[in-house]
Each structure stands twice: as structure tokens, then as C-alpha cells.
Amino acid sequence: MGFPLFKPLEFDGVNDSLFQPFDLLGNAHMEYIRYRGEFADVPIERIKNTFQKYYTPMTDLAVSDFDKEAEIENPDPS
């Protein structure tokens, strides 16, 4: 595994922590384009609907199983 290209997000326990716009090499990394609000929990259905609207080839989102995929990618070491 290589070295991380991103610094950990800084968080002081009070103020919001913002994503870094650049990686450690100075390449553009992420940018906030539109404010979508604040949520008490992840608005998964809203996210899936947005992905299906803008990324139409991703039709398998409706039948995806995040927990199963996580188990496959991170098998129990015991």
C-alpha cells in the first residue's frame, strides 16, 4: 500500500471540518458545488435518486447491498 495522498481532515470539535480542495501533490481533489442542506442521518434515498438522475448507467444502485459489499471487501479475520 502506498502513502496517503491526503492529509486527515482537521476538526477542533466545534467548527465544521471542510474537505481539502487539493491533495498533498497540489492536484485538485474536491470542491463544493452546491449546498444540499444538513441532515440528522445520511439521506441515502435522496443520494441514490440524484446518482440515478445524473449517472444513468448506474442502474444497479436500486439493488445494491452496502452491508454485503462491505463484508466481501473486509472479510472477518477470525
UniProtKB/TrEMBL annotation:
Domain of life: Bacteria
Record-given protein name: Uncharacterized protein
Originating species: Desulfosarcina ovata subsp. sediminis
Species classification: Bacteria, Pseudomonadati, Thermodesulfobacteriota, Desulfobacteria, Desulfobacterales
